[in-house]
Amino acid sequence: MVGAAILRGILRYWGYGLGYLVIFLTPTPALVCAQNLQDPTLGVVEAASGFSLPIGMEFLATNDFLVIEKNSGQVRRVIAGVIQPQPALVLDVDTANERGLLGIVKHPGFATNNFIYLCHTPSAGNCVCIQRYTWNGSALVDPTDIFSFPTFTGISNHQGGVMTFGPDGKLYAVTGDHGQFGPLQNQPTGPLDDTSVIVRLNDDGSIPADNPLAVAAGDAVKYYAYGIRNSFGMAFDPLSGELWNTENGAQAYDEINRVLPGFNSGWREIMGPAARNPSGTNNLVNLTGGQYADPVFSWLETVAPTGLVFLNSTALGSAYENDLFVGDFNNGYLYHFDLNAQRDALALTGGLSDTVADNANELDSVVLGTGFDGISSLKVGPDGKLYVVSLFQGKIYAVTEVSGSDLAITRLKAPKKIKLPVRPKTVTVTLQNRGPANVTFSNLSTLTNLIQIQIESLGDCPTPTATIVPPKKLPVTLAPERKITLRYTVTFDCANDAGSGSGREDYRFTARINPYDDPNSANNECPRPPVSVDKGCNKGRLVLTDVHQQ
To answer: Which of 4, 156, 167, 327 allows an S-S link to 375, with CB 3.0 to 4.6 Å?
Structure first.
């Protein structure tokens, strides 16, 4: 079998999409990585596992969701983390290249009509078909044809298949270029053949009269956007109501786009900002009602971006509310972006202020998580948590906030005897994860910011300084109930006969979990003795104080 690293390199070089790699690569233990989050206030929980190439999911209710498997054509139901023995539906799908069971979305009126929409490439037939099903409580039944994109013979790929409903109640569905060259790929001649487009449909598949390209001739009446190479992610901003998507580049320039009505993404003439392309916008095909716009963000080196969602909840803390999250397939990275006040661009700084990540180092400020190993989709659940679909691991993860009661300092050990002059001493702090989710400390700065060490001189000596000793291995992941002991080097600066001239000095050592320190709480201190404390002390949000002298 060809190694995973080589195949990922092939994917980047040729610019193929998700499914081309899936054909050849089966998940192996070597591919499985620990999930690491840059924010220690967030944790990762495994919501379900045991899928074969999961590519999308949709919630029926809290702790009850459907997962689609690309190549098996199965729709699997998961209740409270357990895959149900009988599939909700099995479709006979063509799995060549990027074909298969590709998309799932529920109707905004699902609570009353029970409608679920699927997009797939049937083994008998030459289309990317959208069908509407009815959920009967245990299975998807009564298929109704809604819309069909064409497919083409040979090795054509870029079938897309992602769907979403807009705040206008319309169904939006995307397909890629299918290897075609025509006006919808900004080439001068050819038919409007339903490739490289986002279509906007009524929920029954009919065409709305107010589509942005309705004034153009022929088939353009269906289209909301065109010039799209391929896309695996679409979502509406909950505040602005505007559509955003991800787009896969070829050898360079994957994109995040703000997709306004009539949007022309520029493919095959432009990927990335127009200013970085030799001909700029000079050769674009301008359909009546169409308009080109630069991407709001680009990766110079392709990462194959996939799922894209706006977190319309405070389940990860208020700092993440309504922010944009994007997953990538090549690296298994989870990206987090703030938006500007106008919600028409990303709030990018430093090397990203030009909206292009020119190298891996520039991505540090926007990579929130790693180790998800081939992200195929993202979803916000009814509980407000962020759900990540890992295609290679066959798992669904939930990113959740780690509350103050989830982390506890259970031991503070400081020097018993402090004589003058004082050489550097070691202080240790033991931290325990008391929550249900793994907590990952990705780098030294997260640990430094999490634990606050305060040392107070009770005499005339200056206040000592405490410096954390780096753990032998980073990142560090704490499973529920697991502990880690951190070491600090404390440096003193005091004369031989400070204070009363007794040749000693008294100090008070305090350790706090900084993000959860509540100055208004009357119970935010657990003085030592005793060192060993239980969960009853401020529900695990602990502060330990220890006074030592000779």
So the answer is: 327
